[in-house]
Design brief:
Structural class: alpha+beta
Number of helices: 7
Shape: rod-shaped
Helix content: 25-40%
Number of domains: 2
Largest sheet: 5 strands, antiparallel
């Protein structure tokens, strides 16, 4: 480890093997890892954190929490209070990339003390933009399906129909013309023609041998 660089997770030179392992995990994780102070200062950040936020390690350290997390997110004060009370917090927040774009992240944060007695925070961050987009698309599809089903009316069960005039009786014992009943209770409509049998009966002169 380079001289003067704060070891993540509070390691020291007496545990070089563990420190090296921690550094390898820190550098190669797919999730963003940051070593921070409870006041929001960032002391170290891995390459994944740089990729997620679109900033170099030096920029992350300079920005601190205030420059990376959307301070207007109403969930932020509660999560900070939760970590202060319990020593840990887990949830979702809105983060900000270098170009100003706001995006959703899932994070876990744990407070610990280094062998030197310094309070530190381990922060793990995951970009959940794709997951949120997929969830939004699913919700939109569900909403569209509900709207479609709400517009579709179906006839079910037995319909009381007059055997002579073909009118249909509704639940209030009112008789309706078949066409008007179908139009009211379904999305169907009618076009009119005449079938061959009726044509022979009503207009025999139009039938050619």
């Amino acid at each position: 480890m380079s001289q003067g660089k704060t070891p993540p997770f509070g390691g020291d030179n007496d545990t070089l093997g563990n420190e090296t392992l921690h550094r390898l995990l820190f550098e190669n994780s797919l999730d963003g890892f940051m070593l921070t102070a409870p006041d929001g200062r960032i002391l170290d950040a891995n390459p994944a954190a740089s990729r997620i936020f679109g900033r170099t390690r030096e920029e992350l350290l300079r920005e601190g929490r205030e420059g990376l997390i959307d301070s207007s997110d109403p969930r932020l004060p509660g999560l900070i209070a939760q970590r202060r009370q319990t020593g840990r917090a887990h949830g979702e927040l809105s983060a900000r990339r270098k170009d100003g774009a706001v995006f959703p992240v899932e994070f876990s944060s744990v407070v610990f003390t280094t062998p030197e007695g310094e309070p530190r925070t381990c922060l793990i961050i995951r970009d959940i933009s794709e997951r949120k987009a997929a969830e939004a698309e699913r919700e939109n599809l569900i909403g569209e399906l509900r709207d479609t089903l709400g517009r579709v009316k179906r006839l079910s069960g037995l319909l009381p129909m007059c055997a002579a005039c073909r009118k249909i009786r509704d639940e209030r014992d009112v008789w309706h013309d078949l066409e008007s009943y179908i139009r009211t209770h379904t999305e169907a409509d009618f076009s009119h023609g005449i079938c061959p049998d009726c044509r022979r009966q009503l207009y025999p002169e139009t039938i050619r041998d």
